[in-house]
UniProtKB/TrEMBL annotation:
Cell membrane recorded as keyword: no
Summary of the function given for this chain in its UniProt record: Catalyzes the deamination of 5-methylthioadenosine and S-adenosyl-L-homocysteine into 5-methylthioinosine and S-inosyl-L-homocysteine, respectively. Is also able to deaminate adenosine.
E.C. number: 3.5.4.28, 3.5.4.31
Protein's UniProt keywords contain Magnesium: no
Organism of this sequence: Macellibacteroides fermentans
Residues of the Amidohydrolase-related domain: 46-392
Residues at which Zn(2+) binds: 54, 56, 201, 290
Pfam family membership, one: Amidohydro_1
A molecular function (GO) term: S-adenosylhomocysteine deaminase activity
Enzyme type, top EC level: hydrolase
Name of this protein: 5-methylthioadenosine/S-adenosylhomocysteine deaminase
Length: 418
């Protein structure tokens, strides 16, 4: 199957784009080719699909359920007791709702860490997105729970062989305060043997750092170094409370970092994400929304704006975190973190892209597309989404959206009654 996008704005030029199968084949003005279907790009701009590199998709079910709390009471008193009740059906409908929201706001790929990830895999499969799904691991420092976690990882890894090529398997130890060093080392070895990403929350709050020093005698990054698990496969979510030596250690080991400005602000975990220092040290930084209970949506356009404005504010530097770098953080950097040949519109890359509707106040006048996208727009500017060479949304409509809203709301209300 082939798709020809005619006359869309790309890097300031009116351009045609030919997609063949799952790849972008040609990019240029007035292509003289035929295709199975043609999309009119007039009045639209093409951008790479966003890569949300840290979320918990099915937490859409907890949107607006527990707000205005700090991280640990929020997790321990509100979120974890309700997550313990989740069924595979709940996670499936929560994930379908997440996929719908991501498609509607231009995300084509996400990195997820959540319970019952098999249900998320089914939702992703059906909705047509691309995802890397972590099998979660907790042991709460209890050896019998560590053995259970290992058995779950071995089994779910074998099952993941049946997933489509759009879905990749990864390992998701939750955090250093819920997973023992012994289990972290075992997971790192498993990840190494099987070439898998390892995704972990780290240095999210000042309390986490204080507790790490008290419990392990080391700050979180130094603790991971001592365990021997800093590696290019490691993807850290948050990483707010780092000193300059820790940033150097991450850079030296090729560790990737995901910035989550909305949840960092809403849970008041910390503002001073050291993007400039990480970028200058050579750490690849991606952007995430985190889950809908702490962000409270999956809109990467909004996340770019918050990242930029937060970075400018705490540094008191209006030149910090400019729009162009935010777009790269949300696209090419995310693709690099997940090892995908995507995140840029050029021949040979995966056909994961969106068309923005420029006929709106946010894009009028359109002196600078990236500026308008980051500072003026929100995710509702997205008109068309293509992932893996297939159209997932056209004219801002996704097939079956009413049923998803209805079913997801029903399981969310039912969960709270259980
Ligand atoms: C291992 S499944 C994911 C686990 O993480 C919880 N979670 C959601 N947001 C955060 C956050 O900001 N920091 C730490 N943990 C978080 C989620 O509720 C699941 O239990
Ligand atoms: Zn998270």
């Amino acid at each position: 199957m082939s798709i020809l996008i005619k006359g869309a704005l790309l890097r300031g030029e009116v351009t045609d784009i030919l997609i063949e199968g799952k790849y972008i084949r040609e990019v240029g003005p007035s292509l003289t080719v035929t295709a199975d279907s043609c999309l009119d790009g007039t009045g639209k701009a093409v951008i790479p699909g966003f890569v949300n590199t840290h979320t918990h998709a099915a937490m859409t079910l907890f949107r607006g359920f527990a707000d205005d709390m700090p991280l640990m009471p929020w997790l321990e008193e509100k979120i974890w007791p309700n997550e313990a009740k989740l069924t595979i059906e709940d996670v499936y409908w929560g994930s379908r709702l997440a996929c719908l929201e991501m498609i509607k706001t231009g995300t084509t790929t996400f990195l997820d860490m959540y319970h019952k990830h098999q249900s998320t895999a089914l939702a992703v499969e059906e909705m047509g997105l691309r995802a890397t799904l972590c099998a979660v691991a907790f042991d709460h420092f209890q050896p019998e729970k560590a053995e259970k976690a290992k058995a779950y990882i071995r089994k779910s890894f074998d099952e993941s062989m049946g997933y489509s090529k759009r879905i990749r398997y990864a390992l998701g130890p939750h955090a250093i305060y819920t997973v023992s060093g012994e289990l972290l080392q075992w997971l790192d070895e498993f990840a190494n043997e099987n070439q898998l990403p390892l995704h972990l929350h780290l240095s999210e709050t000042a309390t986490e750092v204080e507790n790490s020093i008290r419990q392990f005698g080391l700050s979180p990054v130094r603790y991971l170094y001592k365990l021997g698990i800093l590696s290019p496969r490691l993807i850290l979510a948050h990483a707010i409370w780092l000193d300059s030596d820790e940033i150097r250690m991450l850079a030296d080991h090729g560790v990737k970092v995901v910035h989550n400005p909305l949840s960092n602000m809403k849970l008041a975990s910390g503002m001073e994400f050291k993007y400039n220092e990480m970028r200058d040290a050579g750490v690849v930084v991606g952007l995430g929304t985190d889950g809908c209970a702490s962000s409270n949506n999956l809109d990467m356009v909004e996340a770019m704006k918050f990242a930029s404005l937060l970075g400018k504010s705490w540094r008191k530097d209006p030149e910090a975190m400019p729009a162009g770098e935010m777009v790269r953080m949300a696209t090419a950097n995310g693709a690099q973190i997940l090892g995908l040949n995507a995140g840029e519109i050029k021949p040979g890359t995966l056909a994961d892209l969106s068309l923005i509707n420029l006929k709106s106040p946010a894009f009028t006048p359109n002196f600078n597309l990236e500026s308008n996208l980051v500072y003026a727009a929100n995710g509702s500017c997205i008109d068309t989404v293509i992932c893996d060479g297939k159209i997932l949304m056209q004219n801002a409509r996704v097939a079956g959206e009413e049923e998803i809203l209805e079913k997801a709301a029903a399981v969310a209300y039912d969960l709270m009654k259980r």
